[in-house]
């Protein structure tokens, strides 16, 4: 303990050498060391059942399947494979391509793609979402901007998606796909995710004009006049986030369709928002995976 570094592959292999070790972990995360038996209602130790993915109550023999109703359950995929792919996602900087997973663990492309997709979805759940900014003097400034992501669809047609990004300086980022660069698409998202009274920085795009009417202290830099920084007024934080996101998406993933883009956005949010605690990324991801129900996304789950 004590180290905040990313785990190495060796650390990982030592901790989870086989499926039994993985199952034990899921059991502990989901039920703790001892728990009240559903059948005999006594506090019990559970012992691993031989030859099954279950544990047995010491008093009455009732069996508990720790992977039941989790993504681990359905697949014929060994737990070690799931754990390994999650490990890859936790230590990677720019994302993990399904092709790479296919190659490394020897599953079909379809299986690899599904695993990656599930993992991204759960990264969104770990990260939770809480509104940004605040009206106090100590509250961080929130930068807001849009980016065009993706490129061409498999037929070669232009298929760029518009993403709205909101980021606290030195804090968390939130990104949401929007249908158009119109006030009626952007403003509801801003109002939902940026607290009233926040100090907000944008460029001079039309959609942000008059945003102060909605209770924001708004400043903008005039990009069309080549103005990028004026004292505290700049959007450098969100711009560097876009650069990182584009590097990841364009570099690692061949094509991300609009339909699946939000999952990729969650993945990169997750990495950004946990950047000061990289050693926790893997364990947090395992923790949500071991839950039977995925927490509802985009609720203000994290407290301030
Ligand atoms: Zn029992």
Bound molecules: zinc ion
Overall domain count: 2
| Widest sheet, order of strands | 7-6-5-8-9
Class derived from helix and strand content = alpha+beta
- State mean pLDDT (0 to 100 scale): 88
- Biggest sheet statistics: 5 strands, mixed
Give the quaternary arrangement of the chains.
Answer: single chain
Strand content: 15-25%
Q: What's the number of helices? A: 10
Coarse morphology = elongated
- Number of E-state strands: 11
Helix and strand element order: HHEEEEHHHHEEEHEEEEHHH
Helix content: 25-40%
The separation of the N and C termini measures 26 Å
Radius of gyration: 22 Å
Low-confidence spans: 297-304
Give the SSE layout.
Blueprint: H1 9-15, H2 19-31, E1 34-36, E2 43-48, E3 55-57, E4 63-64, H3 71-74, H4 79-91, H5 98-105, H6 109-127, E5 142-149, E6 161-168, E7 173-178, H7 183-193, E8 199-203, E9 217-221, E10 229-230, E11 233-234, H8 236-252, H9 258-273, H10 278-289
Parallel strand pairs: 5-8, 8-9
Antiparallel strand pairs: 1-2, 2-3, 3-4, 5-6, 6-7, 10-11
